Structures are given as structure tokens and as C-alpha cells.
From TrEMBL:
<dbReference type="Pfam" id="PF13193">
    <property type="entry name" value="AMP-binding_C"/>
</dbReference>
<dbReference type="Pfam" id="PF00501">
    <property type="entry name" value="AMP-binding"/>
</dbReference>
<dbReference type="GO" id="GO:0016877">
    <property type="term" value="F:ligase activity, forming carbon-sulfur bonds"/>
</dbReference>
<dbReference type="InterPro" id="IPR050237">
    <property type="entry name" value="ATP-dep_AMP-bd_enzyme"/>
</dbReference>
<dbReference type="InterPro" id="IPR000873">
    <property type="entry name" value="AMP-dep_synth/lig_dom"/>
</dbReference>
<feature type="domain" description="AMP-binding enzyme C-terminal">
    <location>
        <begin position="405"/>
        <end position="476"/>
    </location>
</feature>
<dbReference type="InterPro" id="IPR025110">
    <property type="entry name" value="AMP-bd_C"/>
</dbReference>
<feature type="domain" description="AMP-dependent synthetase/ligase">
    <location>
        <begin position="8"/>
        <end position="355"/>
    </location>
</feature>
<protein>
    <submittedName>
        <fullName>Acyl-CoA synthetase (AMP-forming)/AMP-acid ligase II</fullName>
    </submittedName>
</protein>
<dbReference type="InterPro" id="IPR045851">
    <property type="entry name" value="AMP-bd_C_sf"/>
</dbReference>
<dbReference type="InterPro" id="IPR042099">
    <property type="entry name" value="ANL_N_sf"/>
</dbReference>
<dbReference type="InterPro" id="IPR020845">
    <property type="entry name" value="AMP-binding_CS"/>
</dbReference>
<keyword id="KW-0436">Ligase</keyword>
Length: 488
């Protein structure tokens, strides 16, 4: 089993139909996409080689993924919003041999790493897609690694969730069974980053011959997105909750070709969801997943949103096809209905472990279960509601930010004695980062200090100055106390 088989099937069936579009413009048919992927693939290898893709949303990402899989290599998508320093950490951790980058990211990255960086507009890249094509892969073990999904670690270091061909195939089948049934008259419009959720959805839509539409701005611009959903047939998209809100704020009504919006990856407030449904109708699907069980733990289907009460709309739904989900007490016994415990899941979608990190793998995969680090409870109808996260993470606009990482950098500033970072609820972003500071450094100084070291989106939106951080008798900072001060 090889994910390349999905493209192969689409090319056999829909050969001369449009496959990849930049905005409204057709770039490749399914046949030419397969051809390009196989030609590019012949320049990659040997099997197991890690190949990074560091780019805003661009059409080349689609061919790069399938080329990498055809060569039985591993794609390492990198969030383009990271600081080059953070990107290099991932390249080093994953032992990447080759980076394919957009011109913009390539320019920033080349001087920061010794790993070869090739931009997708270069002659070298064109030469690869003109090489002789590789034979199609025949027998790939489904346990072969396909994707290293990097998430920020609680310790500040990124961890690579190892996703195999089997994992992504299970995700694909579950998506087609539960959420969406596209065909060759449909389109996947890439609004969210293709290095994460939107890219993970490439396989199910490719299998059905649905167009891959990449906005020409390479970003998420609500009006452009809605225009594309007027132009292309049968559109679906994965969007972070903040993006859904931005669509609603345009005041526009649903483009007639927009069929499905899958939202998730972070909390969506019930009120925002109701506004979105009032604006666009019952086209929404919710997923709850994480890098370690990509896009697939629980979900709410389109029909579940219709005439649903607030408890259902505020939940993350019920177990996805092929996934077992349970809530466990501290002693690992199952929690009763309504009782909060840690959410665990198992199934073919669950990662093989963390790359080169047996300690983290041991803590996260236990007795066949993935410990999600999320706390939640089931109601008597089987709907799961997230209550808290046992991992100390802030999710802002769909991006995960680990407070510890920001605190460590803040503490490097000579004008900071103590720093405590928490998330505060926010109408637009879901949560925003707030830093409590004991010290004399000004917000402008701290901003400048952080911008040199970590990604812009991790920067606190607000600084609160206090005399001392609240601590328990062991000296541990009481984060809950800090959150309470923000009215959370
Ligand atoms: P990531 O690994 O970056 O995809 O982040 C996964 C985390 O995002 C999960 O462990 C949850 O804490 C959170 N998350 C994902 N989906 C949802 C959702 N539908 N509602 C609330 N939080 C979510």
C-alpha cells in the first residue's frame, strides 16, 4: 500500500481533467500531475530519506508529496510561519537531506542551514520534473513512514509524529466515510496551511479526482477564498475556527459552489458556530484530532449540526469510523458518563510514535492507546466534550503555542526576572497569548527580543506586569491563578 496509488488511480480514471489549479488557472491534469510526480520522484531517494517542504500554500506541494511517497521517502512539511531558527531545529531533528522551499522561505533558510535548499522556481527544480520517470511503486509496506508531523513540544523542542502510509490511508477512508463524498466534479480549496490540516486532506480528494485549488495569494484571504468557491465546482475546505469567523465577517452569503467546511484543530465557540451557520447554512463539519491521530479522533457530521442543542454544538462529537475513543481516570479505569478524564484513542490512524524520541513515545502510546493530553467527558448520548488540556498549550488561530517555549525566551532577556505565559479567551483568535512579567523590560523591548528568536505568531498579544508570580508551596507557578486574573 502506497499513497501514490491514490494519484495513480485518479490519473487512470480522470486523466485529462484538471487536477491542480492556482487560483482559477489550471496548471496540471491528473495525467500530467502523475507524470511530474514520477519524474521528480526519480531524483529522490533512497527510501526513508526525509524531504522537507517549507513553503506557503503553493501548487508544487501536491506534486512534491506524491513524488516523495512514490520514492518511499518521508515528507517533512514545515510550518512556513516558523522562525528560520525553529525550522532548522526541525531539519536537524528529522535528519532532513533536502529542502524544497518557496522563493521567500528559501531566501531566509539558505543561510541558516547546511542542508541543501532548492526553491520551486529554480532551474534545478524544473530539471527534476523533466527527468526520466520512476517506475510506480509496487509493494510498499503500509508501516513505511510517509509524513513527519512536527508539533511544538511541551519542553519547547518540536516532536515529529511519525505518520505511516497506513495511518494516512485510515484517515482518508474515515474522512470519506464520515464527512464528505467528493467526486471528480468537486474541489478542495486550500485555505488553511498545506503543511498541516489542509495538506493532510489532499489524499482523500485526490483519490476521488477532486480538483486541488491553491489560492494565488498563497494565503488565506476571505474574499479570494469565497470567489474561488464561486468559480470552482463542489468546493470543500478545511479551515481553522478563526478562518471561519473571518469568512462570516465579510458579510457575504454562501457561494453557490461551497458545499462543505470542515473546521477544527482548536476550539470554536458555540456562538461563533451559530453565526457561521446562519450566514452559510448547514455546510459545517467538525473534526477533533491531533498530529498524533491526524484529523481523526471524533467529529460532528453536517447533519449533527442541524437543529442541534448547545451541548451538541459545544461538543467535539463522537468517535470517527475505525477509531475507538475512551475517557480514562487517573488509575486508567474508564470514567463514568459526565466524569472528566484524559481522552485516549486507538485505531489505524494513530501514529507509530515520535521520531527519535522513545521517552515521549513511551509516555504517549500506552497499552495500544494514544494519550491525547486532552481532558474531556462523554455525555449520556455519547458526545464528547473537551474540558481542558492536560498539556499546557495555547491554541491561537489554529496554531499551537507552548507557554514554556515563550517563557524560556522571555527569561533570556536581562530585564525579565520571572515570566508566566497563559492563554486568554479571545473572540477572534479563540485564545491569545498573554505574558505575565516580573521585571522592567518594556513590551516593545520584549517584542523585539522575541521576534529575533521565535515565530511571530507565538508573541504575546499582551503583557501584564506584576510584582511576583503566584506559586504553590513547592514554588510551582500557578497557571490557573494567572488565567483567573484574566477572567478565565
Ligand atoms: P495539533 O496536534 O497541532 O493538531 O493540535 C491538536 C490539539 O488541538 C488537540 O489535542 C486539541 O487540544 C485541539 N483541538 C483539535 N481539534 C479540536 C476541536 N475540534 N475543538 C477543540 N480543540 C481541538
Amino acid at each position: 500500500m502506497n499513497l501514490f496509488g491514490l494519484l495513480d488511480q485518479a490519473a487512470d480514471r480522470f486523466g485529462d481533467r484538471g487536477a491542480v489549479f492556482c487560483g482559477e488557472r489550471e496548471l496540471h491534469t491528473w495525467s500530467s500531475l502523475r507524470e511530474r510526480a514520477l519524474r521528480m520522484s526519480s531524483t529522490l531517494g533512497p527510501p526513508g530519506t526525509r524531504i522537507a517542504v517549507a513553503s506557503e500554500n503553493r501548487p508544487e506541494i501536491v506534486e512534491l508529496m506524491f513524488a516523495t511517497w512514490a520514492a518511499e521517502c518521508v515528507v517533512v512539511p514545515i510550518n512556513y510561519k516558523l522562525h528560520p531558527r525553529e525550522m532548522v531545529q526541525i531539519l536537524d531533528d528529522a535528519g532532513v537531506s533536502q529542502v524544497f522551499a518557496s522563493p521567500k522561505i528559501g531566501a531566509e533558510l539558505t543561510s541558516a542551514t547546511e542542508v541543501p535548499v532548492e526553491t520551486v522556481d529554480s532551474e534545478a527544480y524544473s530539471a527534476r520534473v523533466s527527468s526520466s520517470p520512476r517506475e510506480r511503486p509496487r509493494v510498499t509496506d503500509p508501516a513505511t513512514l510517509a509524513w513527519l508531523f512536527y508539533t511544538s513540544g511541551t519542553t519547547g523542542r518540536s516532536k515529529g509524529a511519525m505518520l505511516t502510509h497506513r495511518n494516512l490511508m485510515a484517515m482518508t477512508v474515515s474522512h470519506l466515510a464520515d464527512f464528505d463524498s467528493p467526486d471528480h466534479n468537486c474541489s478542495l480549496v486550500h485555505g488553511a496551511p498545506m503543511s498541516h490540516g489542509s495538506g493532510l486532506y489532499i489524499p482523500p480528494y485526490v483519490l476521488r479526482g477532486a480538483r486541488q485549488v491553491i489560492p494565488s495569494s498563497a494565503a488565506f484571504e476571505p474574499d479570494e477564498f469565497l470567489d474561488l468557491c464561486e468559480h470552482h465546482p463542489g468546493c470543500s475546505a478545511f479551515l481553522a475556527p478563526t478562518m471561519v469567523q473571518r469568512l462570516v465577517q465579510t458579510g457575504r452569503s454562501r457561494p453557490h459552489n461551497l458545499r462543505t467546511i470542515v473546521y477544527g484543530g482548536g476550539p470554536m465557540y458555540v456562538d461563533s458556530l451559530k453565526k457561521a451557520m446562519a450566514a452559510f447554512g448547514p455546510i459545517f463539519v467538525q473534526l477533533y484530532g491531533q498530529g498524533e491521530a491526524p484529523m481523526t479522533i471524533t467529529g460532528l457530521r453536517r447533519a449533527d449540526h442541524v437543529e442541534a442543542d448547545d451541548a451538541v454544538l459545544g461538543s467535539v462529537g463522537y468517535a470517527r469510523s475505525g477509531v475507538d475513543v475512551a475517557v480514562l481516570r487517573d488509575d486508567d479505569t474508564p470514567a463514568a458518563v459526565g466524569e472528566i478524564g484524559e481522552i485516549v484513542c486507538r485505531g489505524d490512524v494513530v501514529m507509530a510514535g515520535y521520531w527519535n524520541n522513545t521517552e515521549a513515545t513511551r509516555k504517549t502510546l500506552q497499552d495500544g492507546w494514544l494519550r491525547t493530553g486532552d481532558m474531556g467527558s462523554f455525555d449520556e448520548r455519547g458526545f464528547l466534550t473537551l474540558r481542558d488540556r492536560s498539556k499546557d498549550v495555547v491554541i491561537s488561530g489554529g496554531s499551537n503555542i507552548y507557554p514554556r517555549e515563550v517563557e524560556e525566551i522571555l527569561l533570556e532577556h536581562p530585564g525579565v526576572y520571572e515570566a508566566g505565559v497563559v492563554g486568554a479567551p479571545d473572540e477572534e483568535w479563540g485564545e491569545v497569548v498573554v505574558a505575565f512579567i516580573v521585571g522592567s523590560a518594556s513590551p516593545a523591548e520584549l517584542d523585539a527580543h522575541l521576534l529575533e528568536r521565535i515565530a511571530r505568531f507565538k508573541r504575546p498579544k499582551r503583557y501584564e506586569y506584576i510584582d511576583e508570580l503566584p506559586k504553590n508551596s513547592y514554588g510551582k507557578v500557578l497557571k490557573r491563578d494567572l488565567r483567573d486574573r484574566l477572567g478565565r
